[in-house]
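#random but structural
TW: two for the price of one
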Amino acid sequence: MNANFLEKEVLKKAKDGDDSAFEIIIREFERKIVRFAYGMVGNSFDAEDLAQEIFVKVYFGIKNFDFSKPFEPWLYAIARNHIRSFLSSKRGVFVSLEKILGTLEEKAIESEDDIEKVDPELRIAMEKLKTIDREIISLKYISELKLEEIAERLKLPLSTVKTKLRRGLKKLENDLNLEKLNLSFLE
């Protein structure tokens, strides 16, 4: 859903309590939020539960949404904060990512079935990353966002996103004893 007239109309209707308008929002963003949550928590059961909880928060919080700002970054801020709370309550249960087939930038997860085939070594390596680095890697390789979109959603400068992504990928490269990753797309 683009930040256009239709989106604003749907959001306004949802804000006014129109459940069918809120269902449109859920249909539009549910898969993205589940994938983002999965990238952070590492299992589909928790990811689906978290997505439901996030949409409940959005449902009750939409009354406070500022229509002068884009919706998607607001949604992801709620998702990120909720997932971080979940993770802090379950120390040691962290993120997973697709098995690196060649290099991380070559292949993104295409379905939830692929997500379930994550290499245990990769899970361990991801656990060692800082939360923000896991978030950025998850948004890049699971949600398949562009770096500019990641910067907008996380409300970080693009240069910071690039630096954290590069640092996270380098750490994975070292921890997994991979051949040197091609990070030229971060230049």
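TW: number two ↓
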Amino acid sequence: MQAQVSVEGEAVSTGTFAISRKDERISDIIQRAGGLNPYADAAGAILIRKTEFSQARSPAQISQARLERLKAKILNPADGSLNSEAQARLKERLQALENTLDNNTGDDAQGGQLKRELLEEAAERDSLLADIEIREEEPVAIDLEEILQAPGSKYDLIVQAGDVISIPGRMQTVRIAGEVSSP
């Protein structure tokens, strides 16, 4: 499964886009989305990025969980039957796959989970830490106008799996405050 980025709001074509290169940038994704529609407020656009505390699982982690369930079924069959020669070969294959996945699973996700647990444990012991909010995603300020004018510039960030580019619409209202001569 490929890493993906979502575009929401006032783009010509909103939706989910696969990241095709490691150096793919916001401008590349917006271009693939057909650009901005006439109602877009580029100045109000934000990038929503997952933090290290995100609970999202990578494809490798999902595969790892499936393998663990399958391995448990093979090692402990429900009917209590003994393992056959075919089951032994299957166990060997699963072990080889498991070793491959162990080397490819995201250390970031495991590290994020460990950080989360340590913060929660510290919050239980110290009441001053109890109000700390652990966010799974955070907004990142972007200058979409500058990004579209100068693709590849320092403002044009490289996208990451799970990013959401959110483009609001222009405000179509007028606000009047104070005294007016006619209601």
